[in-house]
C-alpha cells in the first residue's frame, strides 16, 4: 500500500539531500519494510562521514538492493569521492575492473572476489535508523562530480564512460517535464538493474528527485510483473521481459510502462497494452548519449520523437548525430546508429553499424567474446557472429584450435568440449553473451583484402548440427 502524498517539486541532485523531511513519500519499499526519507538522510550522512575519513578516493558500487545502492551513491558524492559503477556483476569481471577503483561497496547478496578491498553496507543500513541532528549536507557542484560507467567498447574490453552529474541532472529534468504530471503519485517497480544508465536514472535518481518511492529489488519474472500491476505503479522494464509476458492472464493495469535497451517488437508492445493496460513508452539512447528520443508504437511504423532539448542530424553515412545537454550542449556527438530522418523531430532507426549488438537489451561486444576465446589454451583464432534463428538472435563462434585444443576435442568429444568452452567463458562473460553454437575449422575464411568472409562464416551454420 503506497500512500498518495502531494509530490515534491523536482529537486536537483545538487540539493537533494537538503530536502525537508516532512510530507514525503517513502524512499523505497521491500515488502512490508519501508525506508523513510529521514532514514535515508541518516544513512547517507553516516556513510558519507565514514567514507570521508578514508584515504581511498575511488569507490565502486555493486549492490542488488536499490535502496542500499541509492544510499551508497549519494554518500560517495557527498564524501567528495570518485564514483564508479561496474555493469557486470561476474566476479572475474569485477576483478578485471579493479584497477579503476580502490574500494568496492556492496551488499550481502553480491558475489565478491576475495582479492578486492570491500565494504559490506548491509549491516550499516540496519544500524542507523534515526535521523541525527548533525546531518547537514552542502550544495553540490554537479559539473565537478564525475561518474564512471562501463559499456562494451569496439576494442572488446569494457569501455569507461565518464559523465558529470550535471548531465544526469539535465536528463532527469527532461524526463520530469515529459512524464512528471502522469507519474506524480506513483510507485516505481523495475525489472532492470540500477547499475546501468537506464535503471540508474529511471528507477533510482529520477524517483529520488521527485519524491516517488521505488522497489528495493528487481521483478525477475513475468508472473511478478503481473502480480505487481496497479494503477498507482509504474513499470520500468526492457523488451527482454516484456516479450515473455504470460498472454493468458490479464492483470490490473499499470499507470505507465517504460522500456529501453533495444527496440520492442510491435507485437510485444500490443500484447503489453492488452495484458498490462498500458502501451509502453520506449526510450532510445545509450550510456554515452543518455536518452535521445521516445515513442509509443501505435503502429509498427511509429517513428521515434527526439527529446525537446536534443537536436538531431545525420552524417554522410546516414548515421545519427546529436547535440544534447546529456552529453555536451555545444558539440555534436556521432553515434553508430544508422538512421532515417523524417524531419527535425522524428526519425527511424535502421540498425547499428559497429560490432556491438544487443541481445535481450544487453550490449554485447563480439570483439570481446573473440578476445576471451583466444585467451584459452585450446583456441588459436575465433570469429564471432550473430545469427538470426526462429526470430531470435543468438551468438555463434567459428574457431581454429591449437594442438592442445585438438587433442582435448578428440579426447572428450564435441558435446563435452563445447560445455567446457562455455564453462571457461563464464568467468568473464555474462551467460547471455556466451556462444550457443561453435564450428571448428582449419582456417578462418578471408577475402583478398584480409577481411573475413561473413557469408562463408554464416553458411557454416546452415546445417542442423
Automatic annotation (TrEMBL):
<dbReference type="InterPro" id="IPR045851">
    <property type="entry name" value="AMP-bd_C_sf"/>
</dbReference>
<feature type="domain" description="AMP-dependent synthetase/ligase">
    <location>
        <begin position="23"/>
        <end position="296"/>
    </location>
</feature>
<dbReference type="GO" id="GO:0016874">
    <property type="term" value="F:ligase activity"/>
</dbReference>
<dbReference type="Pfam" id="PF00501">
    <property type="entry name" value="AMP-binding"/>
</dbReference>
<dbReference type="InterPro" id="IPR042099">
    <property type="entry name" value="ANL_N_sf"/>
</dbReference>
<protein>
    <submittedName>
        <fullName>AMP-fatty acid ligase</fullName>
    </submittedName>
</protein>
<keyword id="KW-0436">Ligase</keyword>
<dbReference type="InterPro" id="IPR000873">
    <property type="entry name" value="AMP-dep_synth/lig_dom"/>
</dbReference>
